[in-house]
Design goal:
Blueprint (H helix, E strand, L loop, with lengths): L5 E7 L3 E8 L5 H21 L9 E8 L1 H12 L7 E9 L4 E9 H10 L4 H16 L7 H17 L8
Helix pairs in contact: 1-4, 1-5, 4-5
Length: 170
């Protein structure tokens, strides 16, 4: 079934299968294409640097490239926060015929664009960082305590450095 205004894409490598739905009226195709071009390197770094091991099964992730309207709705429903955010992650850890489904990650282009402009960074670098942040949440990393936050941030900084992306916390 084809939903109007939604572009569906699948990206694969040896370890991950990424299924994505893109709100075509919100997301410019060039941003998605640059994201896809960098995706294999990002996933490879995550696999090398994270301390999570899922044996040999493929890891599936669902992405939704959306906007503030949808992310406010989800944030309000699931986190009881009535405002926009840049990314939300929903871990799953369920077995499928394709592999282990890690969960869903949802992005808001308006919030990501505002933050990138405010922080004087490219939308693409910011999106890669938020994807990395979301995947780490799906892998069980969190930032609820200072110790957890430091561990997660250090891992993000290390992976982003290997991808030639500046420390987002500096």
């Amino acid at each position: 079934m084809n939903i109007p205004d939604v572009d569906y894409r699948i990206w694969k490598n040896d370890i991950f299968i990424i299924e994505s739905n893109i709100s075509a009226s919100l997301w410019h195709n060039d941003i998605i294409n640059v994201f896809h071009k960098n995706l294999c390197n990002v996933l490879s770094e995550i696999d090398k640097k994270s301390d999570v091991n899922f044996s040999n099964s493929k890891r599936l992730i669902s992405l939704f490239f959306s906007g503030d309207k949808k992310i406010i709705e989800l944030n309000k429903t699931f986190r009881k926060i009535d405002s926009a955010t840049n990314v939300l992650s929903f871990p799953s850890y369920s077995k499928t015929e394709k592999g282990l489904f890690l969960g869903d990650i949802i992005f808001s282009v308006e919030t990501i664009s505002r933050e990138a402009k405010r922080d004087n960074k490219s939308i693409n670098s910011h999106l890669i960082h938020l994807f990395l942040h979301g995947v780490l949440h799906l892998l069980g990393y969190d930032h609820e305590t200072e110790e957890e936050a430091q561990k997660m941030e250090n891992l993000e900084i290390d992976i982003l450095r290997n991808l030639q992306i500046d420390n987002p916390y500096a």
